[in-house]
Amino acid sequence: MLRLHRIGDRPIMTPRKAVSWEKSAVLNAAAIHDGGKFHLLYRAVAHNPGDPNRSCIGYAVSDDGIHFTRLDEPVLTSNVVPEEAQGVEDPRVTKIGDTFYMLYTAYDGARTQVALATSTDLIHWQRHGVVIPDTLFGNNKDAALFPEKIGGRYCMLHRPVPDIYLAFSDDLLHWTDHVRIMQPEFAWETAKIGAGAQPIKTDKGWLLIYHGVDEKLWYRLGAALLDLDDPTRVIARQPEWILQPETEWEIVGDVNNVVFTCGAVLLGRELWVYYGAADTVIGLAKGNLDDF
Asked: Of 58, 67, 88, 235, which one has the fewest beta carbons inside 10 Å?
């Protein structure tokens, strides 16, 4: 049975109180290993009077995956376009060819919609706008792009509450053929589920680390495996969670009782999962694929 084990007894990243745009919280980071380095694109929050929950996205880099250096300014800010007036949230990053693709949540204070940005260096990003509007499914989020085409088309995970869907596209901008692939099934995920890290290709299938929420609003992480050639087919799903809130910094924060991932890295058989804890700090946990 796969279980994730925390690295250390403290978060690997906490808010910089002297930095205005991340002084309140850092959380829910996309993670990618590229060029021999670990890269995080993390959500940062500043609580200000009259504007208590505005999010932007920061960038951090590390040689060892634990000790990160951060930029002084965010790489993606809110309030640039109306759809993002209140925040850009929860990025997932996938590299295809020489381009990095970021799917993230555009939040205008009322609606959450799936948006896309691209980069060649992980720092300078070009917006491509909302790619799954709320007119299709209502509020939507938790989108993640597969790292290669499947059946000649791009493939994306996304989550209109409470289930996980797949969608397909020829151009990354127009998405069709939406298929529900996973629903809440186990006791620890009865309220809703959603994609976590970007899909990771293994010899057995596409590894999906996802989150589940129970009726008491505890967030835990789970693991599933999708067919390599037909990812609408779930070929394995572990009934037990792989990580749950246990430490004080996972239990108490802006949102209590939360572990939530937007990014993971597979090095050999070792899985590195970066996760937001209590919507306030970022932790790291590892596991071995041979246990799944």
From this structure: 67
